[in-house]
Amino acid sequence: MRVAIYILFTFIISSCKNNKELPIVKYNSELLDLCETGNEMQSAGKFDSALIVYENIISENPDFLPAYTGKRFTLAKLFEYDTLLLFSESMANKFPTSEAVLFEVGALHLKKGNYNKSKEYFKKCITCIDKILNSGKIKYPNRYIRTRALAKKAIGDRSYLKDINLLERTPEDKMENMIDSTLIDVIEKKPIIVFLNEIYPDSIR
């Protein structure tokens, strides 16, 4: 279960990364290579070095979204939640249509006990996902429906149950099935704050 929760966390925090349904943006190939170096450093546990790489990229190109995602993920791995919250809030202002960032800001505020702020960002997340799904351009809606269900659960909106029923099974994709099963288990058995403390733990367990 812990592995499945970690994978679900990865899908939420990095859903704007490598998302084929977002408009195609042509980035500088050198920056892409540099970002990949940062990703490799992050995977190897060289978090401080990875952060320097991401920050250098952002300084050179403030619109280079993959570097922002890399920095967010690295800060989460370092349990630097105060820094992550400030960074994600600034990112939410810069990229207001990123449902992953809006969800993360809401989750971090909830973790800190800032309930009004948390509710504000979860509502923004839900509105953002509604627009995405209503656009009719989404071929794989599950990733958005999962996040919307969790955001609704967090603010006490019981229509999250309808989202659970909307989740489509994809038998050919074992990963998707595991994510859906994990979410349903979370929705049915765990208070949202317990789940958030598992995807944003205070230390390695």
Describe the structure in your own words:
With 205 residues, the protein is mostly helical. The protein has a domain at 2-21 and 80-199: Serine Threonine Protein Phosphatase 5, Tetratricopeptide repeat, CATH 1.25.40. It contains eleven helices and no strands. It has helices at residues 2-13, 29-43, 47-60, 65-77, 81-94, 99-112, 115-134, 142-154, 160-166, 174-189, 192-199. Helix 2 (29-43) packs parallel to helix 4 (65-77) and helix 7 runs antiparallel to helix 8. Residues 1-5 and 16-24 have low confidence and may be disordered.
Count the E strands.
0
Output the number of helix runs.
11
Dominant shape: globular
CATH topology-level fold name of the domain at 2-21 and 80-199: Serine Threonine Protein Phosphatase 5, Tetratricopeptide repeat
Which sequence of SSEs, written as H and E, runs from N to C? HHHHHHHHHHH
Which structural class matches the secondary elements? mainly alpha
| Second CATH tier, the architecture of the domain at 2-21 and 80-199 | Alpha Horseshoe
The helicity comes to: over 70%
Largest sheet: none
